[in-house]
Amino acid sequence: MTSSTTSACPKCRQPISAGAKFCANCGNDISGVWSKSDPGPLGGTIAVEMDPNVDTLGQMLSEATLGDYDIYGELGRGGMAAVYLGLDLALNRKVAIKTMLPELISREGMVQRFKREAQTSAGLSHPHIIQIFTVKETKQLVFFVMKFIEGRSLESVITDKGHVPLGMAQTILAQVGSALDYAHRKHIVHRDIKPANIMIDEDGWAIVTDFGIAKVQEAQNLTATGTAIGTPHYMSPEQFHNKAVTGQSDQYSLGVVAYEMLAGKKPFDGGTYAEIITQHLFEAVPDLRQVNPEVPEHVADSIKKMMAKDPADRFPDLDTAIHSFGAPVSKKEGDALRTQMISLAKSGPQKKVRMSVPMSPIPVTKKREAPAATAIEPAVKAPKRKRPDPVQEKKSGAGKWIGIAATLLVVAGGGYFGWQQFLKKPIPIVTPPAGPVVTPQGETKQPPAADTTHAVVTPPVTEAPAVDTVKIAAAAAAKERARIADSTARADRRRRNDSIANSKKAPQKTEPKNAVAEPPAQKAPEVVQPAATPMGAVKIGSPTAGAYVYINGTIDPTPLTSVRTIPAPAGSVHVTIKAEKCEPWDSIVTVPAGATVTIGRRFAKCP
């Protein structure tokens, strides 16, 4: 824990302001609970401290889904579970992963209830109900994977826009009502219908989510006796009394949502839990047309009937209720409304994903990586350096040796040509006179300074050396030429012998003076290529700040801030993630030749 902590509601874990008696998000009674030193009537265990910089649950989920999903960060959290944005590595699609809070797993009945949510949703195949992909359980976690909806909640729309136009409200109610009516026919009651659980996706469809407290009417009630379950502003009167809950309860809650969409505010509201309950149980529904005169009378009457106190006074089913609202009469009008819903879904404020581990500032000397993904848009990928393909590496290795052999041939030919030119030229004076030189005209001149940039120093043409020096130099030159001629003759004899032995050698052509002579054809040295090491790759990343990956002890120079594919030799590979002041993570994986082993995101253990 850090020194910066915030009190949170123990039910939904949303921040609460000092002095409040009820949670503004879920309505839970939090009176008197503010510190561990003064716990109040509900006991010190109710006060919850949140550390915004550490998300151990995200790290646990990343470990549990290693190789299957890449966890980007937290989308939201409630009193029972947290939802994370992930990437399905096998199908390359974004998913939402809902995981139960670890502290609840040991409580009786909680795991069964959490699994029941996934099983309930998975058993409902409807275009306007959230799709569940899989349910998994480990020793520490229980979680399920569901479709990630690109868009925004109806709650966000109402908060941003106020009331919703009549045609759009009719469309949303028709889609949500058809989904709930389908669930009711399967004997499933949602019990928590509210704008926050209705999503508007970027295809212009309304999707019902969060069947967390849904009840299968024939199944055993897993909730505590005498406990009201739901969100106070949208609960039906029978839910407050903990009476039998049927599809009529969802009809009441959807009527509250309809009122809020058209009025821009809730029909029943208050500063305390008791006030809200009293209004739901005893007060009549406020006249919607007084708040929004543009609402047709038959629509206002339909909402009143849906929100009747007695379930028997409501519509017999939701299909009848939504037909009483009416709907766009033409396909053209319906297409226009859907276009508006698509625009509305895309125009919302961009939701930032809370990363599981905070990222430190990027040093100016290091290359910037792609920013984190958001709930609306995926991460903008930074340009990736192309890694050499293992097959191409084999080809490039052979080409490298062939290139070296060709270079040796060119250098040998150039040296032979230079040697031939050297034999045709007089030997230059290597060492100039050490002292002053007297010219035939009687002038005394100093010799030029030696040119240290060349191996051979040529004396000036205009300055003749003394007579004795010239004779000595000429004699030495003649002797050197005789030695070189003898050496050349021996070399010619060896070449003739080689030519006879090698019948495939082409005869040399006579080249004109000053032309570049082609080197004599020589048998290229046989290059023994080293056996190419079979290669594979590992796909790995780490949100730990300043993390680097080591493959068999060799560091990859690029910081490991995102999941990347890194070449690795085939076989048993030692993979290590290191970060400054952190305990390294390491493992040994088996990499098949030509294949990529997905490791996913891994965390270095930092204090």
Explained architecture:
It is built from 13 helices and 22 strands. The chain is α+β, with helices and mostly antiparallel strands. It folds into four domains: 6-147, Phosphorylase Kinase, domain 1; 151-346, Orthogonal Bundle (Transferase(Phosphotransferase), domain 1); 423-497, no CATH class; 534-601, Immunoglobulin-like. Helix 4 (166-185) runs antiparallel to helix 6 (247-263) and helix 6 (247-263) runs antiparallel to helix 9 (297-306).
The CATH first-level class of the largest domain comes to: Mainly Alpha
Q: Based on DSSP secondary structure assignment, what is the total number of beta strands?
A: 22
The CATH architecture term of the largest domain is: Orthogonal Bundle
The fraction of residues assigned to DSSP E strands is 15-25%
Question: Helix proportion of residues, in percent?
Answer: 25-40%
Would you identify the regions where 5 or more consecutive residues have pLDDT less than 50? 1-6, 32-53, 217-227, 355-396, 425-434, 450-467
Q: Could you give a short account of the major beta sheet?
A: 6 strands, antiparallel
**How would you sum up the global shape?**
elongated
Span between termini? 11 Å
Computed Rg: 42 Å
Strand order of the largest sheet: 6-7-5-4-3-13
Count of helices?
13
CATH fold assignment of the largest domain = Transferase(Phosphotransferase), domain 1
Assembly type of the chains comes to single chain
User: Can you tell me the CATH superfamily of the largest domain?
Assistant: Transferase(Phosphotransferase) domain 1
